[in-house]
Amino acid sequence: MGVISTSSRDAESRPVMARVPLVKAAVLGAVILLLALLVVQPFGWVLFNSLHDDATGAWTLNNYARVVRSAELIEPLVNSLILAAATALIAVGIGVPLAWLVSRTDLPFRRTIRVLTLTAFVTPSFIGATGWILLAAPNSGWLNTAWRWLAGEGAGAPLNIYSMAGAIFVCGIYTVPYSFTMVSSALDEMAVELEDAATTLGCGVLRTMVSITIPLAAPAVIASFILSFIQGLTLFGVPAFLLTPTGIPVVTTKLAEFYQLFPPEIYLAAAYCMPLLLVTGALFWMRRRYLGRKQYVTISGKTRAGRQIRLGGWRWPALFLALLMPLLSVFLPYAALLLVSLTRAWGQGLSWENLSLYWYWWAIFGNSETHTAIVNSLVYSTLGATLCVALGTLVAYIVERRLMVGASLLGAVATVPIVIPGIVLSVGFFAAYTRAPLNLYGTPLLLIAAFAATFLPIAYSHGGSILKGIGPELERAARSLGAGEARTFLSITLPLMGGGLVSGWFLVFIPIIRELSVAVFLITPKTNVMTTLIYNAKDGGNYEAVCAMSVLLLLITLFLVAVARPLAGLTGARRTSRKTATAAGVPS
Amino acid sequence: MTDISRRGLLKTGGLAGAALLSGGIAGTGFARLAAAQDDPLYAAARKEGALTLYWGSYEQQTMEAIRDAFKAKYPGIEVQLLRQASQTVYTRLRLELQNGVAECDSLGTTNLLHYTELKKIGALAAYDPPDAAMLPAAFKGLDKDTMYHVGAISLTSINYAPGKVGAPPTSWMALLEDQWKGKITTGSPAFSGDVASWVVAIRRKYGDDYLRRFGQQKPKVGQSNVDTVTDILAGERVVGSGAPFSYTLTQKAAGNPIDVSVPTDDAILNLGLTGIPVKAPHPNAARLFTNFLYSKEVSDILSKNYWPTLRTDVAWAEGRSLDQLKWYRNSGDDLAAEVAEGIAKWKELVR
């Protein structure tokens, strides 16, 4: 592999530590305490529940026995694994090339494609599924109707969204943003000297990409593969809408059935999540084995001279391919949702008399609950994402730089929550946060803490994959010049992570905004959020309202992203990279 | 944009009308307010000052209308409404009980088993709402210890697309005719309590053979039975089985091409129940609300939203009433087991 190791493993893993300064001890203590409260405790409750009987409340291993023995419970696990693996393959297969095109080439409209990919990200999966049902249901889907119109009435339906292929497709296209964002930020932050060196030595574009760029981005690619896989395992909306009609059960729809039973089998549901943990644990283990032997450290400090690969005649074909994603995940489904939201009664079809802005009027002015919910959604996601990224980055730093004994255990802890489907996690959070020491029930803090904990794995793995690309030399230089660990982190590492942290923040902020199931037992009338309102409208069959609120949610988030991104770009990445590059003695 | 101004006009007109009307009946209005002021229960509830509703019966819109009417009649009580699916609301209450949290004052869900279970563990308080006297006789005194009462009446029927169906099926049996093959949409008993009730009732009426033949009709099975309406409006299917009666009529009233057909072999009637937790933080407000459910105001709201009313003296929308239709309600002590068995049979025979 063309990756250059710049230091011996030993020196890298042990930063000079003459004494343990107070600040460091305090930070380590705080991180451990937060992890214990936010993650260990709720997960402990899930584990505790899994070992109890739903009917009697007595200790038992029976839940596990049932999971292992019953074919009816094995089948959904297998289906979920298929769905997850296919989702991850699509996400990486599309997301990585797309990221490379946007970050490394002179593809036209790069910024637009970035924004559109984030737009797909904002979409809650059940909304995406709804949009695609409108488009590709076998009898009524607009694309199928259009096909019949073109090819004749007897042409049949080429698309059937109610199928495993349909579910994989929808899960896949809404998961691409994960891999796209993680890999493109790795590519953005990557030092380009090695690529330059390869070019100087006569490597072509392709060879440079294969032997330098891709291996350097490997940590991000693998992390995004795992996150996409987990996403495929834990999504509820898509399989619920698209697979229920075909009778294909997956883990999340099965969990929903457990909750629907009387009495609800909550403890069995907890046990049923544990195989997911095993599978994901195995993935992380494989990642360690693969990445562990290699060094991804590149010479630190950055020259972001904006080296671009010229696509030449490929520019426009590449743009066409790059636009396919937004077309499938944003333009087509949102066109369908928009049309429905603009009708007074959507069953009447499209006509001038039926066109109306009523549902927007209703969502914005006619319904007091929406106001509170919009504000709540924004406040909780902002605070939750900030807490999550701060904690995730610190944990990643502690783990990558091995700042304490058992650091990798911290990393393992930070990875757990996202693997547990939201509906089960919600019960764990409920048990953990409603009693001492955290009596948070009914307060916004409950949701903020739950959201931060749920998405901690994203912040942690994203932070980790950025840190893997930043060599510790500058940090060591700072240390030898007398700076403390905290100062080193703040003045060297953090600025170097810069833009990557901003994209990491969005990677957490957006999933929080669209999250539904984790909140299900945690919201109260005063702390209601947008997604639960949308789901309630869906539950009540009010499709025009569902579509109008979804479009609003999308617009609000897009607006925020549009405002925040250039702001972050100005204050974050560019400035600091130039500064650190200068600091590192590299001419910018 | 014209739409908003049209609404605005209508609203102004409505306001003017309301003003005229209220002028006319000002006397009665004041009398009623005065009566409310004198009510010792209201006085006690007002002292508590707040009320938290955990409700799964009725959709968001109807529930909000009921809440707003309560607030208007009993000022000084802050009402918090948590509207989620019935089973979610119940699970939440159970979690609160397990963790020693008491937030809920009034529980309203669509499953009788929730209440028999809560009663068994001593989690419900007794209260006999005086205005429940106006309930249809069949639904009075459900619990001899007055720990739970009827909170909602929900009907499961057939719905269809009038433009696309010449003559709709008029019975559950008729759904098995060849002409409906590949045309039916329904919900899943594993996800929807209403569909589960329907499966139990159908098995009692016609046995498992019905489910087998129903499966051969290749119905599209969604989650909730609300999905039947969606499928019909979208044009994915034309006839819905185990379909929500009230909700279909709401959509019809909104101008959508859909209608109900009440089966001659009985609409399936499912009761929503309501009860007050023993640890309710605002027990008086909870009692006041429970009694308010049986007021004329609430039944008027229900009628307006196409729900069966909770008073014999308030007619349903479109002039319908309980005695006009044939209905059947599952009863018995072992419903939980029957539901579980029904779901298992469904999975075996339908999909």
TrEMBL record, chain B:
State the Pfam families in the record.
SBP_bac_8 (PF13416)
In terms of PROSITE patterns, this protein maps to: TAT
Task: List, alphabetically, the SUPFAM superfamilies matched.
Answer: Periplasmic binding protein-like II
The protein's matches in InterPro entries, at most eight in alphabetical order, are given as: SBP, TAT_signal
Keywords of the record, alphabetical order, are: Signal
Instruction: Look up the signal peptide feature and give its range.
Output: none
Report the domain of life of the source organism. Bacteria
- PANTHER family (alphabetical): ABC TRANSPORTER SUBSTRATE-BINDING PROTEIN (PTHR30006:SF2), THIAMINE-BINDING PERIPLASMIC PROTEIN-RELATED (PTHR30006)
Name of the molecule in the record: Extracellular solute-binding protein
User: Organism, per UniProt?
Assistant: Azospirillum melinis
Q: What is the phylogenetic placement of the source species in the record? A: Bacteria, Pseudomonadati, Pseudomonadota, Alphaproteobacteria, Rhodospirillales
